[in-house]
Design a protein that fits this description.
It contains three helices and two strands; from the N terminus they run ββααα. It has 92 residues and is an alpha+beta fold. It has one domain. A hairpin with a 2-residue loop joins strand 1 and strand 2. The protein is extended.
Length: 92
């Protein structure tokens, strides 16, 4: 659990502060929710093993590059895929 305080001015975040909040006690697991999550995890694990494409170049998407704000080829590919259906066509 955590707490996040945002200071917003003119619709933009101008400062923020956050911290983790620990309860100091173990929270009992909800068996029904844990079972649902386990089911989805099994299905996701199977889906993630399937190769759906290949590239001729290494796709840079490592945490260091991404967290530093570096523009990566993986980021550009993802952006292209997300926006490709929203681009106007010659017929529009």
């Amino acid at each position: 659990m955590g707490k996040l305080d945002l200071n917003i001015k003119d619709g933009k975040i101008v400062s923020y502060d956050g911290k983790l909040i620990t309860s100091g006690r173990r929270i009992k697991e909800n068996v029904e929710i844990a079972s649902t999550i386990a089911d989805y995890k099994k299905r996701l694990d199977v889906a993630l093993e399937k190769v759906i494409g290949r590239t001729e170049v290494y796709l840079e998407g490592g945490m260091q590059a991404v967290r530093s704000g570096q523009n990566t080829n993986l980021g550009r590919l993802i952006t292209y895929i997300i926006t490709k259906d929203s681009r106007p066509t010659r017929d529009s």
